[in-house]
Specification:
The chain has 333 residues and is α+β, with helices and mostly antiparallel strands. It folds into 2 domains: 89 residues, Orthogonal Bundle (Hypothetical Oxidoreductase Yiak, Chain: A, domain 1); 195 residues, Ribosomal Protein S8, Chain: A, domain 1 (2-Layer Sandwich), CATH 3.30.1370. Strands 2-3-4-12-5-8-9 form a 7-stranded mixed beta sheet, sandwiched between helices. It has a two-stranded antiparallel ribbon with strand order 1-13. Strands 6-7 form a two-stranded antiparallel sheet. It starts with a strand and ends with a helix. The mean pLDDT is 97. The structure holds NADPH dihydro-nicotinamide-adenine-dinucleotide phosphate and pyrrole-2-carboxylate. Pyrrole-2-carboxylate binds next to helix 6.
């Protein structure tokens, strides 16, 4: 497997996206997010998405010249219109707005409408942790799961993420889909010809399957049964009812090159600990919980795996499978 530095991969991905029609800024920030996901061991939301985004740009499912802007705002709340572009510039604008507003109001909410796939949800919250605040992220995605009791996909896999900064350590990062696993993990398994565990997905006839391709043609199962399905419903409502974005069942699959502009939504909440019990109390409470958790030798902190992998990738580069690297080089040529 050829090894590449993160700098080289960033340049390659940005060039590939620009060639497909993205503005240089849209390409740059999208490349940063996808390479960071790959570096963090999130292959399902990393470099494999470049060809998908490039195809969406080429087929008009994404507006490559989009110019996201704040379209409504009142005190601690604002709405960003992604202008049907790739999601990353719009989400960066929304998160920046939420941080700035939370500094004065104590907490802020920024919604994003008319958007596209926002990758790994927690990536967007890094600036929030750097600002010493708590961040929450929500995103809906094209329908892949039924409502509880149903047989037709209505909700997306709808990730949620949270970051909690720590004074002298990396933040706690919690980031998960509301399906048993992200659908992207089926895409990676199908690509590599690997089976999937029972409990991840149903085939198109509603039977449990270990065939990743059959799972992609069928439906995902919610994480934790009815509870995951209810959380997925919550995310649809937060990301779409509040922002005007399209529900999962109104958006064509990201896994198809052709289809509609998904126009889905994202939402970010930022909370300043100083507005509540105060930074010192916040730090003490977090460290007390972390120390108690880590007292049990079987426990590790969420986010730790990603942070360690990212540090190693930064120093040593990433081993990218030869066919994937060749695909990126061809898209960038
Ligand atoms: P995972 O099941 O891989 O991980 C879920 C969470 O559990 C992570 O925070 C992980 O931390 C934590 N975790 C797992 N094992 C342990 C452990 N032993 N101890 C402590 N914490 C643990 O996530 P998913 O497959 O559900 O999602 C993967 C990614 O896909 C996410 O980044 C998500 O945002 C993204 N996604 C994006 C979608 C979109 O539409 N944009 C749709 C669906 C998913 P750690 O990372 O440290 O392992
Ligand atoms: O990985 O679950 C997923 C996903 C949904 C839409 C795009 N990726």
């Amino acid at each position: 497997m050829p090894r590449s530095s993160l700098v080289r991969l960033n340049a390659l991905v940005a060039t590939a996206l620009e060639r497909a029609g993205a503005t240089p800024e849209m390409a740059r920030i999208t490349a940063a997010a996808l390479v960071a996901a790959e570096a963090q061991g999130l292959g399902s939301h990393g470099l494999v998405r470049v060809a998908q985004y490039a195809a969406h740009l080429r087929h008009g499912r994404v507006n490559g010249q989009a110019s996201p802007r704040v379209v409504r705002a009142r005190a601690a709340a604002c709405l960003v219109d992604a202008d049907e572009g790739l999601a990353f510039p719009a989400c960066a604008l929304a998160v920046g707005e939420a941080i700035a507003r939370a500094r004065t109001t104590g907490a802020a909410f920024a919604g994003v409408t008319r958007s596209h796939h926002f990758g790994a949800a927690a990536w967007h919250l890094e600036p929030v942790a750097q600002a010493g605040m708590v961040g929450l992220a929500f995103g809906n995605s094209p329908a892949a799961m039924p409502a509880w009791g149903g047989r037709r996909a209505i909700f997306g896999t709808n990730p949620i993420a949270a970051v909690f900064p720590r004074r002298a350590a990396p933040p706690l990062v919690i980031d998960l889909s509301l399906s048993e696993v992200a659908r992207g993990k089926l895409m990676v398994a199908a690509r590599e010809g690997r089976p999937i565990p029972v409990g991840w997905a149903l085939d198109k006839d509603g039977n449990p399957t270990t065939d990743a391709k059959a799972g992609l043609d069928g439906m995902m199962l919610p994480a934790g049964g009815v509870k995951g399905a209810m959380l997925a419903l919550m995310v649809e409502l937060i990301c779409c009812a509040l922002t005007g974005a399209a529900f999962g069942f109104e958006a064509d699959s990201f896994f198809d090159d052709q289809g509609n502009r998904p126009r889905i939504g994202q939402a970010f909440m930022v909370i300043d600990p100083d507005a509540l019990a105060g930074g010192d109390v916040f730090d003490e409470r977090i460290e007390t919980l972390v120390a108690t958790m880590l007292h049990d030798p079987g426990v590790r902190l969420p986010g730790q795996r990603r942070i360690e992998l990212a540090r190693r990738a930064e120093a040593e580069g990433l081993d990218v499978p030869a066919p994937l690297l060749a695909q990126l080089e061809s898209l960038a040529a």
